[in-house]
Write a structure and sequence with these properties.
Elements lengths: L9 E6 L1 H18 L6 E6 L3 H9 L6 E10 L5 E9 L9 E9 L3 H11 L5 E9 L12 E5 L5 E2 L15 E4 L6
Parallel strand pairs: 2-3, 2-5, 5-6, 6-7
Antiparallel strand pairs: 1-9, 3-4, 8-9
Helix pairs in contact: 1-2
This protein binds guanosine-5'-monophosphate.
Guanosine-5'-monophosphate binds next to β5, α3 and β8.
């Protein structure tokens, strides 16, 4: 049987497992201090944020509730349409609660901006946005997340939850795909 190896399609590793673990620990410590008595609802944007979310939640020492939302961030093309369609909504009410939205990556920033507006309409006590990666050259600075793991250049990255055509999410690091993998 021929076994394909996802790692062979990676051109370079941007952030290793060790780098990810240490940055996520820092973010977790920061959120722990900030939300010590606030019992926040931490919201995972499926599916890309799943590994980051699971690790971040485990690094938070305070009381938290966990909930999940799935949105379609892209329209027909590869550019973000800015229109967020909810594919799976939260199970719990966020009214009056402190909410932390956890996103994988910001490109145009439109997905996070619209999701923030959508959840704000439900009258939470506060909303904070956290993203692991930020392609900061690609969007206006005023739509950046409140908290960010790493700023990255404009390259298509996969791994640690991020996919290409549904694959590569299970790579334990963040890497840049070889052109041959999607050409
Ligand atoms: P935005 O609305 O900020 O333009 O798009 C954000 C979404 O686009 C992310 O949640 C992610 O699903 C997808 N995305 C943007 N850049 C990348 C990338 O480099 N790699 C992967 N795998 N997804 C990306």
């Amino acid at each position: 049987m021929h076994i394909t190896n996802a790692q062979n399609d990676i051109e370079s590793i941007l952030f290793s497992e060790t780098q990810l673990r240490s940055r996520v620990a820092e973010l977790g410590a920061q959120l722990t201090a900030e939300y010590a008595d606030k019992h926040p609802i931490v919201v995972c944007i499926l599916k890309g944020a799943s590994f980051f979310y699971a690790d971040l939640c485990r690094m938070m020492q305070c009381h938290i509730s966990m909930d999940f939302i799935a949105v379609s961030s892209y329209g027909a093309g590869s550019q973000s349409s800015g229109v967020v369609r909810i594919l799976k909504d939260l199970d719990t009410s966020i009214t009056g609660r402190h909410v932390i939205i956890v996103e994988d990556i910001i490109d145009s920033g439109l997905t996070l901006k619209h999701l923030r507006e959508l959840l704000s309409a439900r009258k939470p006590a506060s909303i904070k946005t956290v993203c692991l990666l930020d392609k900061h050259e690609r969007h206006d600075p005023h739509i950046a997340a409140d908290l960010c793991g790493f700023r990255i250049p404009d390259a298509f990255v996969v791994g640690y939850g991020l996919d290409y055509a549904g694959y590569y999410r299970n790579l334990p690091y963040i890497g840049v795909l070889k052109r041959a993998a999607y050409a």
